[in-house]
Specification:
With 223 residues, the chain is α+β, with helices and mostly antiparallel strands. The protein is 47% helix and 19% strand. Strand 3 and strand 4 form a beta hairpin.
Length: 223
């Protein structure tokens, strides 16, 4: 009698229906993923909003406020007023009646009457020459006073406020570049608003779809 060799068999485990613990684990994993995506989204929105607020603040400081008071923004190009107004500082001046200018004020004046070149130095004394009020000025970092007294007709205004390093931004915003930069800032604001609204609509739609899916699953289980 011939015997056949024994045949070995392996029983494969069968996967039963997922229990409550498995469903809770999947839900917890999905919730963590959603929370991570939401955190990244909020960080991105906060960063972009901060950049836009900074751009708006710079635009207001360099362009908006000077226009409101009838003044102008200028850039310090020398070291004569260091350390208070170092090279590259943005200085914003506003018109001031000459009678209200006092010793210690920083005035911006034309080097020669009627010419565009100006200097911003501190008033160290007020004098009268031939019955006319004049101002003796000096750079804080200079050893001697300016060569000639400053006449009222030369004065463009007094220092209103200053912002370190933003003078370079003012140089970029001068002339034809100003319209381009302002257009870019305005476009960025509109783009940010559009992206924010689109993101809010998309998130709301996702939540609505998820709620509808949950309701559908409950309805299927109950039927």
């Amino acid at each position: 009698m011939t015997l056949s060799p024994p045949v070995s068999t392996t029983t494969l485990p069968t996967r039963g229906p997922a229990g409550p613990s498995s469903r809770r684990t999947r839900r917890a994993d999905a919730r963590r993923r959603d929370e991570g995506k939401s955190l990244l989204h909020y960080l991105a929105v906060s960063l972009s909003a901060s950049i836009l607020v900074l751009l708006l603040a710079v635009a207001v400081a360099v362009v908006g406020l000077p226009v409101v008071v009838g003044g102008s923004a200028m850039t310090v190009l020398t070291q004569s007023m260091e350390p208070g107004l170092p090279h590259g500082t943005l200085v914003v001046i506003r018109p001031t009646p000459v009678d209200e200018i006092r010793v210690g004020d920083v005035v911006t004046y034309q080097i020669s009457s009627g010419e565009a070149a100006v200097v911003s130095h501190r008033v160290v004394s007020k004098t009268y020459a031939d019955g006319e009020l004049t101002f003796v000025t000096k750079g804080d970092n200079n050893d001697s006073v300016d060569p000639a007294p400053v006449k009222p007709v030369q004065i463009r205004g007094t220092l209103w406020y200053s912002l370190p390093l933003l003078g370079w931004v003012n140089n970029v915003l001068n002339g034809s570049n100003r319209a381009v930069v302002l257009a870019v800032v305005a476009g960025s604001l509109f783009l940010y608003a559009a992206v924010s609204v689109g993101g809010a609509v998309r998130d709301r739609r996702k939540k609505t779809d998820a709620a509808a899916a949950v309701a559908l699953r409950k309805q299927v289980r109950g039927s």
